[in-house]
Structures are given as structure tokens and as C-alpha cells.
Design goal:
The protein has 459 residues and is of the alpha/beta class. The chain is built from 19 helices and 16 strands. It comes from Rufibacter radiotolerans.
């Protein structure tokens, strides 16, 4: 391990401890700063930031109570709530060290320490600091996204009766902390709705974490959602926090929740009931405070009757149930959506915004939109790139369903490998109504591989 611990600050009034710690850690750290006088802590924190801080429990003025250590721990955390502080304590002060953990310290080391154990403790704490930074980055990204979505046309809008009803319910639900279940076909914008609910909630300044449950295997499920301890299983090379911990204080969005096996449903239910997670490889429960938003295109009530989905889990996740209308039931919103997407693609590709003719808009209205808004996005993006017309005409639009019907005709058969592969992908997507997970499974591909083929063939 070479220079992986970042910048370390050590505060201890024992010069021998300071010297030995610096000599040990300097080859693992970017920089090691040592200080004998704890009264200089405010100055040091004002001058620089530190990845790890080692703080003695007792100093010369008070050699036994640990009160000085608690005082300076509080001062450090007041200036930097994300600071990772490891307390240095004598063996007899373990009880005080445990109290320090409750008051915000990350860990503690006993002196005299074992070198390997000290380095392992600091390494684990360093990984935690990295996780804090990732969460901070996510918060900033969420804030930027919220600001961006608040400008111009909001995609979650519409004049159709179906959308007006949805918007009315969203306005009532958003500011509460109720868990929400989003039901709707593929491509209806469930993640967009989830993000909008988060942005309009009291948790808007916290993180929004999205998890594609359809892509989680049985072996990865617990590690991904609940985290794991280094060495908990073969590939666990470092400590890792799970998505529940990452979303703590914010919103956790579980997409495609209907794809979970009964075993995974049971584990998720336990966490939701107890409101705490246990990382794989540990026995320590960690309290979690998240707003849960789940989504699926599957008929959960029917699955409950068939014994494929737990009724008690369904009760947990659908305090409020929102049904997203398919695009064919909100065709009144087409002009607004078309205008929004064409302006977005004009900005993306740095070209003048295109418009659609009355005939082209009528053709869009007559189409059934099996892929919903996601398909509309694709159709408009393709047309805005390929067409040389500033005003798009009916012939500028390519529809997946039309191509599907053509491929079904005998005369469309070919021995060209690319065309055969393209036809097979189109048929699989049509058979499963655009469900990526199901189509990929039938084709024997991973979701990522299927996405690459969809991109390759412009589907």
C-alpha cells in the first residue's frame, strides 16, 4: 500500500508517540502533520483539510478523564462534520473510546498499538472518507440536476386529463415522507417522476440514489444494497457502504422491483421493517432514514395472488400508489413533448431547433407508442439528426413497430449477419414490450450488451 491514506493530522502531547507514528505512516500517507499542543487545532483546521485525524483522548492538563479529547473531538466535528477522527487511547480507556464513537469519532486505536492493526484501521477509515466524498459529490450533482430541471419546460407536465390527475396526486404526495410505488409501462418516465418527487420534497437537498433492481443477482443483492466488510466474501477487497447508507437522509429509488426473487424480497422487507441495515460480514445494525420510491411495469397484485410477490412487502412499499399513463392515453400532450425534445436535441447537437409539420404531428398521433416517451425521444432524436428538413415531415420518422411488422414478412429474410441480428433484437424487444431485462435474457445477453446493440442498430 503506497500513499493511499491521503493527508493525516496527528495530535498527541507525547513526542515519542508523534515521532513513531510519523515514521510509520509517512510511506503510506501523502503527508503526515504532527502537533503536540491541541490548542492549535482550530488554526490547523483553518489552514488546511485532512483526510484522517488521529486525536489523543488525554493531554497533560487532564491525563485520565478524557474530557479534553471529547472537547477537541466536538470542536473538530463542528468545523468539519465529515471529518474522519480516530481516537488514540490507553487500554483502560476503552469505555471512553466507545463513548467517543457515539459522539462522532470514526474509530479508536489502543496504545501501544500494533503497527499492522493501526494501518488497517486507518485504511478502513480512509475508505469511509472516500465514501463521504462520493456522497458529497452526489449531493452536488442532485442539486445541479434540480436547478437544471427547474429551468425551462419541465418534462413532468401535460394538459391531458390523465396527466392532470397524476400531477394533482404528485403535488399532494411530494412534500410528505410517504413511500411511493410507481406503476406504468416501460418508457412512461418512472425515474423522471421519482426524481421530481424528490426535488419537491423536504429531502431535496439530500441525495437521490437510483438502483436498477432488475440487474442485481442473488449474490450481489445484499452487498449492493446493504454494503459489506472487507473479506466478507471472495471479491470483497475493501469495506463498502451500500445504497441504503448512501441514501441516508435522502431518497432511494428502487426500479424494476417486480424482478426480485422471493428470497431477495424477504431480505428487503426485513430492512424496511427494522429501518436498519447490516453490512455483509458484520453483525452491527446501522440505522437508516430514507424515503423509498419503487417502480415496476409488472402487475404486483396479480403476482401476489400467484405467490410470486410478497403481500407484506407490497404493503410496505405502496403507502401511495401512482399510475403513470402510457403515451397513447395522453396524446393531447404530444405537441408539448415534441417541442421539448426537439429543443433539447437542438441544444445537444448545436443546431437550430426543428419543428414538425401538421401532417407529421398527425402521424405521431396515429402511432400506438408501445415504447412510450422513451420511444418518442428516440424517434425525435433520430429525425433531428438524419433529416435535412428544418420542418420535419411524416417520412422523417422511423417507428420500431413498423419495422417489426416488415421483419415478420417472408420476403424480408436475409443471410446478412448484421441484418439477421438486428431483426432478432427487434423481435425480442417487441415480444417483451421494450423490457430490456426480459429481452436480454431471451437473447442470452447482458443488459449492457443489449444496450450496445440497440445503439449500434439505431433502435
Amino acid at each position: 500500500m503506497e500513499q493511499t491514506l491521503g493527508k493525516i493530522l496527528i495530535i498527541d502531547d507525547n513526542e515519542d508517540i508523534l515521532f513513531s507514528a510519523k515514521m510509520l505512516l509517512k510511506k503510506y500517507a501523502q503527508q503526515v502533520i504532527i502537533e503536540k499542543d491541541p490548542r492549535k487545532i482550530p488554526f490547523l483546521l483553518n489552514q488546511d483539510t485532512y483526510d484522517l485525524i488521529l486525536l489523543d483522548m488525554n493531554f497533560m492538563e487532564d491525563t485520565t478523564s478524557g474530557n479534553e479529547g471529547f472537547y477537541w473531538l466536538k470542536e473538530i466535528l463542528a468545523r468539519d462534520p465529515a471529518a474522519v477522527v480516530i481516537m488514540i487511547t490507553a487500554f483502560g480507556d476503552v469505555e471512553m473510546a466507545v463513548r467517543a464513537l457515539k459522539e462522532g469519532a470514526t474509530d479508536f486505536v489502543l496504545k501501544p498499538w500494533q503497527n499492522e492493526k493501526l494501518i488497517a484501521t486507518l485504511s478502513a477509515a480512509s475508505k469511509l472518507k472516500t465514501s463521504y466524498k462520493e456522497i458529497s459529490t452526489l449531493k452536488k450533482a442532485n442539486s445541479a440536476l434540480a436547478s437544471q430541471l427547474s429551468q425551462g419546460v419541465n418534462l413532468v407536465t401535460g394538459n391531458s386529463p390523465a396527466m392532470q390527475q397524476l400531477l394533482h396526486l404528485m403535488n399532494r404526495v411530494a412534500k410528505t415522507d410517504a413511500d411511493v410505488l410507481l406503476l406504468g409501462e416501460n418508457g412512461t418516465g418512472k425515474e423522471v417522476i421519482a426524481r421530481t418527487l424528490h426535488q419537491q420534497s423536504a429531502r431535496a437537498d439530500k441525495v437521490f440514489i437510483s438502483v436498477d433492481m432488475g440487474s442485481l443477482t442473488e449474490t450481489l443483492f445484499e452487498s449492493e444494497l446493504f454494503g459489506h466488510k472487507k473479506g466478507a466474501f471472495t471479491d470483497a477487497k475493501e469495506d463498502r457502504i451500500g445504497r441504503f447508507e448512501m441514501a441516508n437522509g435522502g431518497t432511494l429509488f428502487l426500479d424494476e422491483i417486480g424482478n426480485l426473487s422471493l428470497a431477495m424480497q424477504a431480505k428487503l422487507l426485513t430492512v424496511l421493517q427494522r429501518r436498519e441495515v447490516i453490512r455483509v460480514g458484520t453483525g452491527q445494525p446501522i440505522p437508516i432514514n430514507v424515503r423509498l420510491i419503487c417502480a415496476t411495469n409488472m402487475p404486483l397484485q396479480q403476482m401476489v395472488q400467484q405467490g410470486r410477490f410478497r403481500q407484506d412487502l407490497l404493503y410496505r412499499i405502496n403507502t401511495i400508489e401512482l399510475h403513470l399513463p402510457p403515451l397513447r392515453e395522453r396524446l393531447e400532450d404530444l405537441p408539448l413533448l415534441v417541442d421539448y425534445f426537439l429543443k433539447r436535441y437542438a441544444q445537444k447537437y448545436k443546431q437550430p431547433a426543428k419543428t414538425v409539420s401538421a401532417a407529421a404531428l398527425e402521424r405521431l398521433r396515429r402511432y400506438d407508442w408501445p415504447g412510450n416517451i422513451r420511444e418518442l425521444e428516440h424517434v425525435l432524436e433520430r429525425a433531428s439528426i438524419i433529416s435535412e428538413n428544418q420542418v420535419l415531415q411524416p417520412q422523417d420518422f422511423f417507428f420500431l413497430q413498423t419495422q417489426q411488422n416488415t421483419l415478420a414478412e417472408p420476403q424480408s429474410q436475409t443471410h446478412n449477419l448484421d441484418e439477421v441480428e438486428r431483426a432478432t433484437v427487434v423481435k425480442a424487444m417487441g415480444k417483451h414490450d421494450g423490457n430490456i431485462s426480459k429481452a436480454a435474457k431471451e437473447l442470452g445477453l447482458s443488459r449492457a450488451s443489449l444496450y450496445r446493440r440497440l445503439e449500434k442498430y439505431g433502435l
